[in-house]
Amino acid sequence: MELVQSADFWIGLFKIIWINIILSGDNAVVIAMAARSLPPAQQQKAVLFGSGAAVVLRIVLTVVAAKLLALPYLQIVGGLLLLWIGVQLLGEEDEGEGESKEYGSMLAAVRTILLADLVMSLDNVIAVAAAAHGSMVLLILGLAISIPLVIFGSTLMIKLMERFPIIVMLGAALIGWVGGETIASDVALKGMLGANPWLHYAAAAAGALFVVAAGRFLQRRARAAARH
Q1: What is d(CA 148, CA 32) in angstroms, rounded to the nearest whole number?
Q2: What's the Cα-to-Cα distance from 150 to each of 25, 119, 142, 163, 199, rounded to whole Å?
Q3: Per the CB 3.0–4.6 Å rule, which of 5, 147, 183, 212 could disulfide with 79?
Q4: 213 against 120, higher pLDDT
Q5: Is the Cβ–Cβ distance between 31 and 156 less than 8 Å?
Q6: Which range is least confidently modeled, 14-23, 38-47, 73-82, 111-120?
């Protein structure tokens, strides 16, 4: 009871809620892009399964995230993985949706969500853990708060993507941006980034441009193959 009455507790909780609102957006975009081509019933399953499994991953990451982020080249590999995921999600936009593909597509969507969230959650977990200041109650609350935020955000993004197709490209660009940022944040590049801070934003912009360009190329190639 004393913990709940503490001003530090409520300040820490407010910080965690704000961090989750800001940092859960990119996770929601990935989930929405991975699930958007599925039938409505499967969209909900993919969002729920993907979000639930992602939260389990975050719990595991809470224990090891700080040590993982200290490993050189790990974030470079993770950033490259995000770029690949972004290209695949944008490039698959025009693929057919036969009934025989639906079940496999849902499994692929959940797999994509898990891979992307594994990479993107490292910084999120570190930020929440820092705001919790060692309080297990705040840490658990932070993880619990992230679940409805991601699920609600994903569901909203799917509806927006159906109504405004340009958001699909913007979502892919965001994944590429995060991928570029992740690469630039690797400890192996710390010295280079320290001397040239602008490289962080250059890498993020290059990641966004690469994903959009490569994804559009795959779309055009798929359309050409379909015509022939």
Answers
A1: 14
A2: 7, 16, 12, 20, 30
A3: 183
A4: 213
A5: no
A6: 14-23
